[in-house]
Amino acid sequence: MGAWAGAAKIRLRRIFKQSLVTTDLAICAHNRYVGPMTEYQIVEPGSETVLRDGTIKLHGPEGFEGMRKAGRLAAMILDEIAPMVQPGVTTAAIDDKVRELTLDGGAVPATLGYRGYAHSCCISINHVVCHGIPSEKTIKDGDIVNIDVTPLLDGWHGDTSRMYLAGDVSLKARRLVDVTYECLMIGIEQAKPGNRVGDIGAAIQAYAESFRYGVVREFCGHGLGRLFHDAPEVVHAGRPGTGPLLKPGMFMTIEPMINLGKPPVKLLADGWTAVTRDKSLSAQFEHSIGITETGCEIFTTSLKGLHKPPYA
Ligand code: MF3
Ligand code: CO
Ligand code: CO
Question: The domain at 6-43+50-298 falls in which architecture?
């Protein structure tokens, strides 16, 4: 292993340590919920300041209304940029469009200035697992592209991502994208009161591994609402019946990252870009959801039916 890889490893380990204290950036603490004992906190209407204190927040109708609006805008942004994702376009141009659509919608991109991140979305291409940084690099024919947006609207976060296919994409890559979307929806089916967070991950893992795909462990879904990244950690691989109990009023993301090859990732020297260690392709879809009395509500569903590619 070179010095560069060693440095990346140390950094990743440092981030893992931080995530024992806070659930930040959805970096999983070794694929387990390692927070304090599971505690729940009811968020009263009008309470704008919510602490990242490790408690799982339970929201009422006001929260659902806020998340519906933020989620709808997030989905609309992903709908609107679909025609732009073509060979020859720079990811910076897409980022500019995301910022424009976010501001036009009366929101701000939650990623802008978040822990030093200077962009309005993340764009992760091919073997980039997540947190790809928009740049002057152009999209190429055959690329699979994840775009992840998080408008912050009236104090609520709508966090969602989809895959896009640029030009002629191989059957192997398209199959990975399809199965990853199915992983998200299979996870969402488990999101209901009485189930546990681990039931979501277990269902996703079983399905992904039936195709011999690798489920990324280093990043996970997360509670959100007034905060961008909050408890609980929503693992995408795990054992059924483990982890925090799902209760009505919980808001969280489910955002499986599925690799054509093995699960491990490494962090590039920029401190953000996560790539598959074996350079295999990786895909991801993300929804923000709220647990209801009977199941869950998806806040970030496309209003145009653009759930997964092809979009045209
Ligand atoms: N939207 C990502 C998520 O799903 C987080 C991106 S944070 C950034 O949790 F700083 F990398 F943009
Ligand atoms: Co997220
Ligand atoms: Co996201």
Answer: Alpha-Beta Complex (3.90)
Ligand 3 center from residue 2 Cα (angstroms): 31
Given a contact cutoff of 8 angstroms between Cβ atoms, the answer to whether 82 and 311 are in contact is yes
Ligand 1 site, CB within 6 A? 25-26, 111, 114, 117, 122, 131, 148, 150, 159, 253, 255, 272, 286
User: In tens digits, what is the pLDDT along the chain, a chain of 312 residues?
Assistant: 344 444 444 444 444 444 433 446 777 764 444 455 789 999 999 888 888 889 999 999 999 999 999 999 999 999 999 999 999 999 999 999 999 999 999 999 999 999 999 999 999 999 999 999 999 999 999 999 999 999 999 999 999 999 999 999 999 999 999 999 999 999 999 999 999 999 999 999 999 999 999 999 999 999 999 999 999 999 999 999 999 999 999 999 999 999 999 999 999 999 999 999 999 999 999 999 999 999 999 999 999 999 999 999
Ligand 2 is a single-atom ion; what residues have CB below 5 A from it?
Answer: 159, 253
Q: Which residue has the tokens 């560069």?
A: 4
Q: At 19, phi and psi to the nearest 5?
A: -70, -10
Domain residue limits, the chain: 6-43+50-298
Rounded to whole angstroms, the Cα distance separating 186 from 202 reads 10
